Amino acid sequence: MNKTPYPDDWPDIDTKLYNRSVKLFNAVKNMLSVKLDLHADPQVLEGDIFLFNHFSRFETFIPQFLIYEKAGAYSCAIASREFFKEDNVLSRYLKHVGVFPHNHDRLFPLLAGQILRGRKVIIFPEGGMVKDRRVIDKRGHYSIYSRVTGNRRKQHTGPAVLAQGLETFKAAIRHAHSQNDVALLRQWKDALQIDSIDQLIAVANKPTLMVPANITFYPIRSSENLLFKSVELFSDGLSLRQSEELLIEGNIMLKNTDMDIRMGTPVDPCWVWDWRTRYLMNKVVPEINTIDDVFTLNSRPKNWRQRLLGTYFIKNAQCSRDRYMEGIYANVTINLSHLAATLIMYCIGQGRMYIEKDKFYSILYIAIKHLQNNTVIHLHRSLLNPDDYSDLFKAANKRFDYFMCVAKEAGLIKEAENSYQFLPKLCVESDFDSIRLENPIAVYNNEAAPLHTVRDTLIDAIDECSHADKDKLAAWHFEDECRTLAWEKRAYSKPLFEDIGPEEVAVADPTPFFIQPELANGFGVLLVHGLLASPAELRTYGEYLVKQGYTVLGIRLKGHGTSPYALRDQSWEDWYGCVQRGFDILKVHCPRIFVAGFSTGGALALKLAAEHYPEMIGVIAVSVPLKFVNPAFMLVPLLHGTNKLVDWVSAYEGVKPFIDNEPEHPAINYRNTPVRALYELRLLIAQLDELLPQISLPVLIIYGDEDPIVSPKGAPIIMDKLGSKHKKIQVIKSRRHGILMENIGGAWSVIDDFLNCRMGRATRNPSSM
To answer: pTM, whole model, 2 decimals?
Structure first.
């Protein structure tokens, strides 16, 4: 390493300047489109040396600010000597916020002194940007490409050298304390600018820990952006390297990129020390007079003991280096692009230059479900939230579509009607400074390569896909419905949505339910709850049906059972998608299915009937809200439109986003009704009006004659418009809305008669259904 003379001392961190920098960083962060997410246990943040992978220049400014934000600790960093060649505003700024030139003669002693004063140190042990993300060589060893030599090299041992030196100096402090050498302890206290000898001893008794951490960007974009265009406008011409970095860095900052920073298990620099190292340590420690002494054991040893200990330290540092690099790469946040890229490169390695679309989607889904149960792999939130991956089977996944779009534009993949064809460019070695633009598939594959579990899981999924277990897939789909509920609860439990929280008193379990009887009769019933409620509304009725031999699934409509704010963000198409998924799950277990819906659920059940699914043999629609008792509901479209206008022109959420509701079942229903939800219900009813004549299935319509919410005038209209030959309307004497939940007027028995009649017909003559 070429070293340039610098002052032996170095300015301490200017805390006021550092604090102002943090505030500026937060202001800029809020303006950018990058989403920073730090995953770290509080204990991990107590570490001393934080180690990160290096993919972009943007990321080098992030860790120290996040650590300060989370732990309140100041951090030092290392930068290229190029920043310190001249005495200018930038170099002075960097000096005063804890940045050291990489070639400072006393770099390690200075950093060690900072750590002993309670500061953190940020290091990027790869020593440069690894644009191709290829960190493992053909022999399976950690190494990276060096632009300087044009060859592959090992990652740096500097963090391990620093940590071992710290441990050695701490041992010297402890030895001096045991010998009651107050003069030496005072000398060290003053040199390190530590307040007291007691504090010095406390620091010496604290183990030094290196924290491996990974920064994962998703997705990687290479399209033109504002930053690139601005620089291009005012420059005479950009090199390939400059253009590539501006495209990648600009998109990271400006185009909704996720930046997951994940900290792993701390590494103890002494973990590899054997008895010989410890023996020599005990002999050498009494010879240490300054913190610089511990970092010259190998380069300027005073005797054979120091020379031999220095040799052991070199070997130990190499072992520690492998340990912390493994920790860095093990904490990659795996996303869908990693899985797709790994699958593609595996197929190519097996000599397969194409893959059927349906097979591709199925393999990815199966792998996701298995990886969700793997406690070693860290998945991106989009692989944990079914809203982001469950539509893979429908070939309508936005993240997958974007991945494929980029791959096709780069000339890596060609899309045929039923397959994806892998093009020769995928196998061509790309230039280091263009690979992120020319072959992002290789970059994603390289990034996931250290995690063998990812590749192994995909290989197993290929085999599993060829003989897919429908029951297992159905179980996974039902699990996804439960996962969606958990994600929705988490998303809408933030302080932002707490203003109406105290008014909501629903405590009933909103989880979807799937119940199979001990002795099944071969028929299934899909239950669909009403607006503002949850599956809990029909749980008791579902259990009643199970006792009669029916297999029952109670689906949850999105936005229900969590927060009225969640419901406000859903459309009727979202609700209907839940019903469709519930039906798909149930038909795996039952060849013949009834669909029973209450209120809004009844309207959704009728819409499903218009799809003419062969497994569906009858519909029970209870209290369908075609018309309302309260005429104010006619003003909902106007109020919704006003809300949208106000929301568009101001920061307020409309003039009246919620309407107060006095539910019959406050333990189940929301007390705040989103105007948006009522508007969506109106849209659904409008759709239903056109679909009723298309329904040919047997239908049972039930309504209460004095329902306080749904006007009984709507039921005859539905009956008249239904295209079914077999249809029946049943009036229940009730002044309450919840006639199905409460079994008012023997509603369950009425439905029993309908079910038994249809079951009998289906058993005698399946084609007549």
So the answer is: 0.90
